[in-house]
diguanylate cyclase
Amino acid sequence: MNPLADQLWHRLTGIMPGELKQAELGWLATPLRHQMLLARRRATLIVNRVRLFAFLFALLTPMWSIVDFVVFPFPLWINLALMRFAACAAFASLLVYYRPSGNLFDAYRAMAILFAIPSVFYVASRSLLGSYHLTGLSAAIGAGYAFLPFVLLAGLSIFPLTLLESAVVASPILLAQLLAGYINWAALDWPSFAGAFWLLMLITAVSALAGMSQLAFMIALVRQAIRDPLTGTFSRRSGEELIDLQFTIAKRNNLPLAIAFLDIDHFKDINDSFGHEAGDKVLADVTAFVGKNLRRGDTLVRWGGEEFLLVMTNTDRSQAEAAVARLRAAGFGTRPDKMPLTASIGIAERSVDQAADWKSLVDLADQRMYRAKQGGRDRVVSCDAPAVP
């Protein structure tokens, strides 16, 4: 790492101590490299907060019509009231019909709808108010409509967004402010408008920083929740969620999906002869050795005890056999007595084994792993043929 990047990293970790690993710093800027499970959890949280926002707007938007009725002339009031109730209906529909799916693009769509509704209302109301000559209290209340973009941009702070996402969401609101200024060009107070727009930019920056801070905490919490504390691999619970998702994607697109079930041979003897601390070290060493030789896109899951699952997306049986052969050739590390570690491995593949669901696929790989053990250990079973030593 160059000195400038190192200095920047230490300053950032001083601001957010213990939250992010260095490799995760780029995740605050763009969502392109986010892990799938993080993306699913973040999508669910975003949609739930969209629905909360929609609930508040659906409740408060029509209530302000009471104030409008008191201060505005009737023709202006009735037009604003119709616009308010149309916005209320849109917010209510978003609340009722939108549910979390774990899909990030669905979350983006929900946010787009949420912020589009008040943005359209803002431009339309400012255009309508600009056609009336208001004075006194009615002018003061009318001026209050100009604060809607400030509320929207401040609301960005409740979402765990990357810097890129915050910029994309904020841009239409800022453009709506410019459009409203253009519509009222003749009567526009330029110094006041420029000051307000600068304040909007400042609020956008603060909201983006707040969203990135939320995202940093979320990354750290999700990492702790989905990782096995001993080995650093995916835990069984997160592994089940991951396999379920990958199986659904593979089935929908008719793609292969392979599972290798690994069981460390004679692991109980290691615990009995050398103690559980030595056994824990062996497990950590195994995951380190396997991790170094995984292909890009492969995922290792600690299934329980000395059992691991290797999830290989877009991989058919022959490719899975080749990948496992490379792992075995590289080795799994050594026992405390310096003897090489071995593993019994069962392989199952979605298409060729016609698995109905992910559980059936894992069960089949598990059964073949047991056949490998019964066949003498330190071998691979990938079909109904005899075990391969």
